[in-house]
Automatic annotation (TrEMBL):
Basic and acidic residues composition-biased segments: 77-87
Keyword set includes Glycosyltransferase: no
Species of provenance: Isobaculum melis
Alphabetical list of InterPro entries matching this protein: ABC3_permease_C (IPR003838), MacB_PCD (IPR025857), Macrolide_Exporter_MacB (IPR050250)
Chief location category: membrane
One MF term in the entry's GO annotations: transmembrane transporter activity
Keyword flag Cell membrane: yes
Region annotation (Disordered) ranges: 72-91
Family: Belongs to the ABC-4 integral membrane protein family.
Membrane topology: Multi-pass membrane protein
Keywords from the UniProt entry: Cell membrane, Membrane, Transmembrane, Transmembrane helix
Domain ABC3 transporter permease C-terminal: 299-422
Name assigned to this protein: Putative ABC transport system permease protein
Length: 429
């Protein structure tokens, strides 16, 4: 008896008692549907978090600032000032300089380090000529911008470019994100020493998608940052130039990739008077919470599958009992115990396959419906966020796992069928 014959026989046997088979498949369907839907939510949310993370910086990026110490009121005695340590209290801001940049760059575990220049913008104005308070930040490390329209700013270009935050599109007088791309805006900045105002014109090359972590922040390219910083430093004494509040360092992920190695790098930075923070430090807790919630929901699906497994056992036990004489006849005609075992095991796997596939298809249908409703209602402000997403790999894994569970559940009745004595089976009433 070939495998094709065994598979055909298993399919035929499942249809003998359609009601019982359908009820067992429905039980598998519920578990598969729950797991697939919660897994889709997990993929969708984590995909959006990944977009937000890439908008903050790459996983090899570390933001380094002067190490802060507690204020004097929280210590037993005054702390001595050490000019070699970059420390600060709540009321005193410390800065970094070019020497600090070189020190950080030469530390073991660092590939590169660049200063984040400080600048100020009074307001922004566009087509409407209305003036608005403007929040912005430079491109940090290997940041990948999640855009609604246009392209990312060019860090190598000498032209002044902006990736505009979506909150400013309508206010600046543009009809849509697409309409804003290519337009020129005016930025007002002031020299710290003289108080003289200067207007800098920049081109909108792209509009960002809504961001949970950087809402309202536009991104500026390096040429524009340099210009604004230079204007702000006009008239300042030499001793006040080249001061930075932060350094962006690129870690060597080839040798510093584990949590322990990164923690060791942060400890060495602390000993040198600096404080380092990775992107994962900023959003790691959010990701853990999302994974925990979807993990709990997946457990409900697993419980449903466990109940369905008992249904498979019951269905096949009853099938063995009803087909005892048939099994005895097949064995009397030369069918081996292994073949009998295979027929019932494949029946169980088929139940798992049908239930899991239907569950995933049902989850995909509900997911598309929910995504449509969500994008038009409670997620309308979060452009680029697809709540429920499915992948072939995860769907395939769910099907294989459920088939394996169903197969294992069917081994007990399959063994019973395989061990039946042909003579006793033929006498069975």
């Amino acid at each position: 008896m070939k495998f094709g014959d065994i598979l055909k026989s298993a399919c035929t046997n499942l249809m003998r008692n359609k009601g019982r088979t359908i009820l067992t498949i429905v039980a598998i369907f519920i578990g598969s549907f729950t797991i697939a839907l919660t897994n889709g939510v997990n993929i969708g949310v984590n995909d959006y978090i990944d977009k937000q993370v890439s908008g903050v910086g790459g996983d090899d990026m570390m933001l380094i600032s002067p190490k802060a110490t507690v204020s004097m009121g929280n210590t037993d005695e005054p702390q001595k000032y050490d000019p070699e340590k970059k420390t600060s209290t709540m009321s005193q801001n410390a800065t970094l300089n070019d020497k600090d940049v070189e020190t950080i760059k030469e530390m073991d575990g660092m590939k590169d380090a660049d200063s984040v220049k400080s600048y100020s913008i009074n307001y922004i104005s566009g087509a409407s000529d209305e003036k608005y308070v403007f929040s912005s930040m430079p491109i940090l490390g290997s940041l990948e911008v999640d855009l609604e329209a246009g392209k990312s700013v060019n860090q190598e270009s000498k032209d002044f470019e902006i990736n505009l935050a979506p909150e400013f599109v309508k206010s600046l007088g543009y009809k849509s994100a697409e309409d804003a791309v290519g337009k020129t805006v005016k930025l007002s900045t002031t020299a710290s020493a003289t108080g003289e105002e200067t207007i800098v014109e920049a081109k909108i090359v792209g509009v960002r998608n809504q961001s949970l972590m950087q809402g309202g922040n536009s991104l500026l390219n390096q040429a524009l940052i340099d210009e604004l910083s230079a204007i702000g430093e006009q008239g300042l004494p030499e001793s006040m130039l080249g001061q930075y509040g932060m350094v962006v360092a690129t870690m060597d992920k080839a040798t510093y990739s584990s949590d322990k190695e990164i923690a060791d790098l942060k400890e060495r930075l602390g000993e040198a008077g600096y404080a380092g923070q990775t992107v994962d430090d900023e959003i790691g807790m959010i990701r853990n919470i999302i994974n925990a919630i979807t993990g709990v929901l997946t457990m409900f699906g697993a419980i449903a599958l466990l109940a369905a497994s008992f249904g498979i056992v019951n269905t096949l036990f009853m099938s063995v009992q009803e087909r005892t004489r048939e099994i005895g006849l097949m064995k009397a005609m030369g069918l081996s115990s292994g073949k009998v075992f295979s027929i019932f095991s494949i029946e169980a796997a088929l139940i798992g396959f049908l239930g899991s596939v239907l569950g995933i298809l049902g989850a995909a249908g509900v997911g598309n419906l929910v995504n449509g409703i969500a994008s038009d209602s409670f997620l309308s402000s979060l452009t680029g966020f697809t709540l429920i997403q499915f992948s072939w790999s995860s769907s395939g894994a769910i099907i294989l796992i459920i088939m394996a569970i169903a197969f294992l559940a069917g081994t007990l009745p399959a063994r019973r069928a395989a061990k039946l004595d042909p003579i006793e089976s033929l006498r069975y009433e």
